[in-house]
Each structure stands twice: as C-alpha cells, then as structure tokens.
Amino acid sequence: MDDTTRSTAPAPTASPAPTASPVAVPTRAARLPWPSLLVLGGAAFTMVTAEMLPTAVLPQMSAGLRVSEAETGLLVSIWAAIVVVGSIPLMRLTRRADRRAVIAWSLVALAASSALTAVAPAYEFVVGARVFGALAVGLLWATTNAHTADLVPDDALARAVAVVLGGATLGTVLGTPIASLVADAVGWRTVFAGLAVLGLVAALLVATVVRRSTGGAADEAPDASGAAPTAGPRATRGAQRPHLGPRMRAMIAVLGLVALLLVGHYGVYTFVTRLVEVPAAGVPGGVGAMLLAFGIASAVGVGLAGRFGARTGRALLVSAIGTGVAVAALAVVDTHPVVGVIVVVAWGVASGALPPLAQTLVLRLAGPEGRGLASALIPVVFNLGIAIGAAAAAGLVAGVGVSAVPLAGAAVIGASVVGLALAVRMPDRTSN
C-alpha cells in the first residue's frame, strides 16, 4: 500500500474488477472488515478495562490487600510507566511474527496477569502481576494499531481506527462502572477473575475471526525521499535502519505535538471532578452524571473522527482547537449548570476525536513500511502525555489552586495547535 496522504492519487489496493477509479474509491471505503475490526475493538475494550480496573475497585481492593488507596491508585501509574518502557523493545522483538498471533498471545498474557491478580495474597504480588499485564498491553496496543492499518485501504483507515478505538472508549464509559458495580456485589477478586475470562475469550476470537494482514510485519520506515523501499519486505526486513524522510520527520513532529496536547488535556481531566462540582450540584445525578455525559460525548467524538477523518490533518486541528476552547471554558462553568453541561459535552466530543485522528494521521505519515515503529510509539506518547499532564496539574493545584488548571491547560493545548498547523503541512511542502 502506498502512502496515500497525497489525496490526489487513488489507493493502489483497489479491486481489479472496477475500471473507473472515481467509483472504486467509495466502494472500497465501504468494505470494512467488520468482524475483524469489531473483535479488535473488543480487545481494546479489554485492554482499557484492565488498565483502569484498580480505580474502579479502589476501596474494595485497598481493604482486601490492607494497603492505602494511594498505593492501590499507584498501580495505574506503574502500569503506564511499564507501557512506556516496554512497548518499543517488545515490538522490535516480535516484528517478524504474525501480528494476529502476537495479539492473541498477548491477550492470553493479559488474562494470566488478571488471574494472578485475582489470587494474589499480598500487594507485592499484585504489583508483579500488573507489571506483567502492562508489558502485554504495551505490545497489544502497538501490534493492534499496525494490524488495523494493514487490514484496510488508506481511505478507510480513519473509519477502521475509529471502530477499534470505539472499544477503548467503551472500556472507559462502560467497563469501569460495570466493574465497580460487580465489585460491590461479589468482591474485587471476582472482577479480576472475570477480566481473565474476558481476555481468553478475546484471544480466541482474535485467533479465529481476525484476518491475517496482507502488509506483512516489516517495520522499516520510508527512505529519505519519503518513499517506501523498493525491495520486498522479506529482503529488506532488518537490513537497514529507518531513514528520516520528510514524512517520517512529520510523523515524529506530530507525535511530539500530540503528546504536548495530551499533557494539557489530561492535566485538566485529572481534576475534572473538582472543576465541575459546582455546576454538577444543580444536575440530577451530580458529578457522576456529568462524567457519564462526558463519556458518552467522547464516544460520539470517536464516531465523528471515523466519519470525517478522510482529511485527517484538518480534522485533527479542528478537534484540538475545540478541546482547547472547551478546556478554557471550564473556567466559567460555575455560572450556571446548563453552561457546565454544555462545556463538558463539547469537551467530550472534541477530545474524544483526538486519539483516533492522531493515530490515523501518524500511521498515514509513517506509511506501510514505517507502521511498526509508529505503532510502537503511539502508546508510549499517549501514556507519557497522561503521566506528565497529571503530575504537572497536581503541582499547579498544590501551588496555586484548582482554578488555575483550565487556563493553563488551554495554553498548553494552544501551543500544540500552532505546532500541529505547521507539522501537518510538512510533507506537502517538502514534496513540492
């Protein structure tokens, strides 16, 4: 598959039967491999639920392990750190393996981690099990990203990514609340045991339903001109180091700027309950209802990203601008509950579109031969953005107060928007 970020050239993977390219493009875009994408979306649901599960069962797990809630919450931070450290090395170790097999076995490893957590006799054993699970999920995210891109033509990439990341969004919107309810009813260990079963089911479905990719497992980047290597994947795999051509430089720039954007967004989201507690007091259901509205709006944003992701760079800019405006508007949500609801919903829609659009743009810029590296970098960048944003916002709240968080976050997002406006045009300028 050629790099089709140049919108004037039709994708070369069209079926040989149609001869008129204007007709082939929309037909091809409509033929998503739905069974494969839905199963991969289910795997994403399992991954996100596993990552956030300690926060859903925080009081029960803390009491059961006889540790503080802060120590239990630290399990999420440890998870993110392991994903950052382990994703790229594991992706390189498995780069020659069939991606479908890597996804399936990584889900088995995640299931084993969850089962070990369910029977862990002490906190230290839970930490070890979580480290094992985080390594599996780091490899899962990287491999799932690359495999999704290999399953579809470029003009359908945004829609495919949106389907898979829709599962991740549901993990936040549904998986965590359901886990909390189950923990209240039958205990936190049963929740982790259920997650182990879910992981095994997902692994079986991946092995039996998901199609093998046609793009191979090579992970070389395009050459210095931005074109893919002319030799076949088997001939070139491991024979050369990636070259930073124009598109790869643009991809790295976009990744860095998306990380900066996520610092601003997640820094503010860390204190969302504090920021919306005043308007939430006038809303039925209070803060919980506001968070549910944000989650549903985020799911809508993911859907919009798939629908309007053909011009990925422009759509990403619009989403980033909308996120920045909504974050800044959090400074005035105290004026009326209706204002609070509108701002939270707008924030959810805009920020929900960010991950699929950013991922789609990065994979397109990397091209088929650079997707292994790009897919490994995506979870690293996202988890770094979350960790740095949360830590920076915590420092700001401790020093100044929570009221300073929205405008500071909006300023960081604004800086990333300026950079993104330049970065998404880099390949076009260098090719002229």
CATH superfamily of the largest domain: MFS general substrate transporter like domains
Question: Helix amount, in percent?
Answer: over 70%
Q: SSE order, as H and E?
A: HHHHHHHHHHHHHHHHH
CATH architect. name of the largest domain: Up-down Bundle
What is the count of β-strands? 0
Q: Based on helices, strands and strand pairing, what is the structural class?
A: mainly alpha
CATH topology title of the largest domain: Growth Hormone, Chain: A
Poorly predicted sequence stretches spanning 5 or more consecutive residues: 1-30, 216-241, 428-432
Beta fraction: under 5%
Please tell me the total number of domains. 2
Assign an overall shape: globular
What integer is the average pLDDT?
A: 83
User: Helix count?
Assistant: 17
Membrane topology: Multi-pass membrane protein
Region (Disordered): 1-22, 216-241
Pfam families: MFS_1 (PF07690)
GO molecular function, one term: transmembrane transporter activity
Describe the fold and architecture.
76% of the residues lie in helices and 0% in strands. It has helices at 21-30, 34-56, 58-65, 69-93, 99-119, 123-151, 157-186, 188-209, 233-236, 246-269, 272-280, 286-307, 312-329, 337-366, 371-399, 405-423, 426-431. Helix 7 (157-186) packs antiparallel against helix 12. Mean pLDDT is 83; it is low at 1-30, 216-241 and 428-432.
